[in-house]
């Protein structure tokens, strides 16, 4: 599903215009991104949680030349699905 399809579905479900539905979807995504930037954990009960994981620096290789390259530390977003979501995905129905 693309963001446009999500906006379309929100508009149909809520009987709002696509413009209003797009504003809602964008606000949710922006809120998640801002919270992650601040280092906060986001928990959506029944769906899952978003966290930031810290990756340390390491030595990598340039695939073209084979030279060793230092890869700096970075923060990576991580999604952990909730129990209910896992159960829904793995149910037989």
Quick structural summary:
By secondary structure, the chain is α+β, with helices and mostly antiparallel strands. The protein has helices at residues 3-14, 18-37, 83-90; strands at 42-44, 48-55, 58-61, 68-71, 74-81.
Describe the model.
It is a single chain. With about 90 residues, this protein is α+β, with helices and mostly antiparallel strands. It folds into two domains: about 1-40; about 40-93, IHF-like DNA-binding proteins (HU Protein, Chain A). It contains three helices and five strands; from the N terminus they run ααβββββα. It has helices at about 5-15, 20-35, 85-90; strands at about 40-45, 50-55, 60, 70, 75-80. Strands 1-2-5 form a three-stranded antiparallel beta sheet. Strand 3 (about 60) and strand 4 (about 70) form a beta hairpin. Helix 1 packs across helix 2. The longest helix is centred in the N-terminal third of the chain and has 20 residues, at about 20-35. The two termini are about 20 Å apart. The model has no long low-confidence stretch (mean pLDDT about 95).
